[in-house]
Amino acid sequence: MVLLVSERTFNQEVLESPIPVLVNFEAPWCGLCRIIQPLLLQFKTQCGEEIKLVGVNADQNFKLSTTYRLKSLPTLLLIENGIVRERLDCFRGREDLRLALEEIKVNYTNRPKTYSTAKTADLGCRTA
């Protein structure tokens, strides 16, 4: 199951997320959106908790559609720390999308985690 977000929940679920978020802008009338759904669910399963997958109904969230300048559906945005890192649109087919998702998975999973805390531990390491 993919978490559906709206303009009201977008900041909390996507922009403020501690992990990268793949946002799927789609619409109920979009045939290609339905066709790629199994690939996205497979991607979500493979990435586990390292990348969050959310869906946005582009018709019902016009402000978000305008903000991210959607030109076609589906459009996928990988957002990390509030910044768009990848944009996938105008797919040439399922294989094209599968390869792009594989590249995202390789680049954004199994990375060292960075933590944004004001304090750091003094581990006693000194440089000469």
Topology:
Elements: E1 3-4, H1 10-15, E2 21-26, H2 31-47, E3 52-57, H3 62-67, E4 75-80, E5 83-88, H4 94-108
Parallel strand pairs: 1-3, 2-3
Antiparallel strand pairs: 2-4, 4-5
Helix pairs in contact: 2-4
Protein described:
The radius of gyration is 17 Å and the shape is globular. The chain is built from 4 helices and 5 strands. A hairpin with a 2-residue loop joins strand 4 and strand 5. It has a 5-stranded mixed sheet. With 128 residues, the protein is α/β, with parallel strands linked by helices.
- Distance separating the two termini: 53 Å
- SS content category: alpha/beta
Tell how many strands the DSSP assignment holds: 5
The level of helicity is: 25-40%
**What is the typical, i.e. mean, pLDDT?**
87
Low-confidence stretches: 115-128
Over all CA atoms, what is the radius of gyration?
17 Å
- Strand percentage: 15-25%
Strand order of the largest sheet: 1-3-2-4-5
Return the string of H and E elements: EHEHEHEEH
Count of helix runs: 4
- Approximate shape: globular
Largest sheet: 5 strands, mixed
Summarize the structure.
This protein is an alpha/beta fold and 128 residues long. The protein is 34% helix and 20% strand. The protein is globular.
